[in-house]
Amino acid sequence: MREMAKGSNVGLADLSDDTGSVIVSLRWSSATGDGDADVSVMLLNGDGKVRGDTDFFFYNHPAAPDGSVQLLGKAPTDGGSEDRISLDLTAVPPDVERIVVAASQYGGACFGELDDLRVTVADRGGETLLGFSIDDAGVESAFLFGELYRRGEEWKFRAIGQGYESGLAGLATDFGIDIVDDSADEDTTEGDPDPEAVQAVVEQESAAQASPSAAAEPRVTLPAQDARGEQPGAGATPRRTPGPRTAKKKVTLPKVAKKSLAENEAWRPARLFPAPTLKSDKERELRATSVLLSVMAEVPEFGRRLTAPFGAPAGRMQTFTEVTLPYGETPRRPDGVIRVERAGKLWTGLVETKTNGNPLRPEQVQDYMDIAARRGYEAVITLSNDVALEGCPPVVAKTDGRRKHKVALWHLSWAEVAHQAQMLIRHEGVGNAAHAWLLQELLSYLQHENSGCHGFQNMGPAWVPVRNGIDTETLCQGDRRAVEVVESWEQLIRQVCLRLGGELGQKVLPVQRARRGVDPQTRRAVLADGLCEDGRLTAELRIDSTPGVLTIVADLRTGKLRTSMEVRAPEGSYPLTSAKRLLRMLAEAPADLHVETLVEGGHGPRGTLERLRPEPADMLPKDGTRATGFRLSLFKGMGVTRGSAETGFIRSVDDVVDRFYAQVVAQLGPFERRPAARSQPAEPAVAGAVA
Q1: Does residue 198 have a pLDDT over 80?
Q2: Whole-Å CA distances, 434 to 418, 421, 423, 437, 439
Q3: For 640-650, how does the pLDDT look when each residue is reduced to its tens digit (9 = 90+)?
Q4: Is 579 helix (H, G, I), strand (E, B) or coil?
Q5: Confidence band (pLDDT; 50, 70, 90) for 521?
Q6: Which long-range contacts (CB under 8 A, 24 or more apart) does 397-404 make?
Q7: What are residue 596's phi and psi, to 5 degrees?
Q8: What pTM was estimated for this model as a whole?
Q9: Backbone region of residue 460 per phi and psi (left: phi > 0; alpha: psi in -120 to 50; beta: other values)
Q10: Which uninterrupted H or E stretch holds 581?
Q11: Where are the beta strands (DSSP E) in 454-611?
């Protein structure tokens, strides 16, 4: 890997023979666990400006129609989070000369509060080619990490590391993007739009695109106030906003289902992909592979969403099942094959599928890796209920270093497949109604109890012995079974994040609090020793647009699950006013919600919502100690079995997270008054948010 210095550049062809598609990764860590930033990508012409508003990619505009740019979203790392961007350089329009990769923060946050700012570039096979670390960040609220630019027929990378105190507004203005405050657009984010208004916008935008003068002035419209209740500030980024408008309307599922015409609940709607007749694991694997691959080929947005992280180009996709491939005296039959054609070149990935919790077989995957290397294929993709963890892949296969052709081994979980389908049909939209319907049928199939595609559903064979050992106080530190339980817990939390994020259309990530430089296995061993000592499994989730971190504690000694969130009291407000305001927000919360007042250096009064509602003053310390915030908690008994049945532990974790979010977190508005964003008079205002 080439380590870059600020201002240096290098040709991608000098580092790899396979750079038609690359993955750019931006990562950072935070000492508090809840620091974050948001990526954006800009395509620039020869004048150093965007050609139009659709050349600006962020959270609400994550992909280019031609597949040249696709924001792949955030992935948790052991020290923080990583944003990945897929760039198909063969699909970039010829009049685009530079691709700028940036990140920004909202509110009063700055990059000096984050650690380990770093950008890396990997080739199509997943091998990291170069890296650039930024170690001089301070008060800047936006940063240019680097750029890819053309030199003749070659693409090169330049390490930039330039910060903007004026935030996204200042950065975007430099590249010809006009960010305008328009509170009227906020009304377009909820409910069904007026058809005449939609048609007027479409006609207006179509005319603008036909006019060269209009195209020269790209415009991104943002609301006057974001979901946190912040006023626009120059140090913020667009999120949950209408985003750049285009004439092409995307289709999403309606929020309210149409009234059923069935006579009674016993009538079941007809499904394109029926699941009840499946009898064996082999049938489930065959059906699941065929269903998934056929929808991937038919719905371009979905197929591209799943294959872009694996280095596949943006092109014509065809998929196949049960393909026989020669291998010595005994041919092999992978479950599926994905082929993508672009500019006369083929990208090929072999697919090995497992359902119903069945494990992947290393020897089988190894055979497919050997076949792919011999035939010049690019990837082997495994798909199972297991969620891949950093430093703990579901299956390990060796690569022959003597072969010039490299084959990448990738893994998908069924939970990730369902997450991507949910994001497209419920939040981001697809090209037409037929594609939305196909994705809904796929999602219905995956969620059917007989499909075997439900994701991680079993805490493993170590779960019962570890619970018994904790109960009898015979579990010793260093026990390998405790590490296995910690790994299963981490997989479960990753899956909870995927499921909740798909339902909400929000970024949901686990918070990792680890010292810098600690490898994943060492971190899990420390957590396993803690489990042996206190009998608790703990996880934290950062949910976009919420006032705090959601904490989950599974106490294996008491058999209880606790979900909680801390909210800070507004600076400068009267304590009783803060208490009353919190209780008003929680008017629909359950009566058994525990409220604990947080004070400096200790704990304050606590009680259930039922007791505190009549007397808000009981929430305040009697000795006049300043209240810094409040901890809100719900308790529930946990399941006793290792699986996801009604009495299972996994089901109980899903239930408590859903209940706490719906009944508590969703009721909380912008309780904390965040610091005002830095602003400069010369810069336009933007809404505080995360892209």
Answers
A1: no
A2: 18, 14, 16, 5, 9
A3: 777 766 668 99
A4: helix
A5: confident
A6: 397/362, 397/365, 397/366, 397/369, 398/366, 398/369, 399/369, 399/373, 400/370, 400/373, 403/373
A7: -120, 130
A8: 0.82
A9: left
A10: helix 575-585
A11: 508-510, 536-543, 549-555, 560-568, 594-599, 602-608
The pLDDT of residue 278 is 82
Measured CA distances, 637 to 470, 556, 664 (Å) = 17, 10, 18
Q: For residue 342, what are its two tokens?
A: 């672009």
Burial class (CB in 10 A: 0-12, 13-18, 19+), 332: middle
d(CA 288, CA 556): 36
12-61 tens-digit pLDDT: 999 988 888 999 999 888 776 667 788 999 999 999 999 988 899 988 78
Q: Residue 470 has what pLDDT? A: 94
From 359, 356, 340, 360, select the one nearest 348 (Cα to Cα): 340
What are the pLDDT digits (tens) for 554-576?
A: 999 999 999 999 998 887 778 88
pLDDT at 76: 76
Distance in angstroms (rounded) separating the CA atoms of residues 404 and 426: 43
Structure tokens at 405: 């052709």
- From the list 571, 515, 516, 507, the residue with the least C-alpha distance to 541 is 507
The H or E element containing residue 10 is strand 9-11
Quick one: DSSP state of residue 427?
A: I
Distance from C-alpha of 616 to C-alpha of 609, rounded to nearest angstrom: 10
In this structure, are residues 580 and 617 in contact, taking their beta carbons and an 8 Å threshold? no
Query: 511: closest CA among 37, 80, 113?
Result: 80
Strands 536-543 and 56-57: unpaired
Of 39, 27, 26, the residue nearest 168 (C-alpha):
39
E-only strand ranges, 152-235: 154-164, 178-181, 219-222
The DSSP string of 241-293 is S--S--SS--B---SSPPPP--SSTT-----SS--TT--SHHHHHHHHHHHHH
Report how many helices (DSSP H) and strands (DSSP E) the chain contains, helices first.
Answer: 14, 26
DSSP 388: P
Bridge pairing between strands 128-134 and 2-3: parallel
Four-point Cα dihedral 617, 619, 621, 627, nearest 10: -110
Find, among 119, 109, 185, the residue nearest to 141 by Cα.
109
Q: What are the distances in angstroms from CA 588 to CA 546, 635, 666, 671? A: 17, 17, 10, 16
Distance of CA 298 to the CA centre of its chain: 24
Q: Is 215 strand, coil or helix?
A: helix
- The answer to whether 349 and 337 are in contact (CB under 8 A) is yes
**Residue 164 contacts residue 141 (beta carbons within 8 Å):** yes
567, two tokens: 């909210």
Which amino acid, 250?
K
pLDDT at residue 37 in the model = 85
562: three-class secondary structure by DSSP: strand
Pair 26, 82: CB distance under 8 Å: yes
Q: What is the pLDDT of residues 582-603, one digit of tens each?
A: 999 999 999 999 999 998 877 7
Q: What is the DSSP string of 607-653?
A: EEHHHHSS-GGGGS-TT-PPEEEEEEEEEEEPPSBSBSSTTBHHHHH
Distant-in-sequence, close-in-space partners of 128: CB < 8 Å, separation ≥ 6: 1, 120, 121, 122
Distance CA 653, CA 166 (A): 42
Pairing of strands 69-76, 80-88: antiparallel
What is the band of 84 on the pLDDT scale with cuts at 50, 70, 90? very high
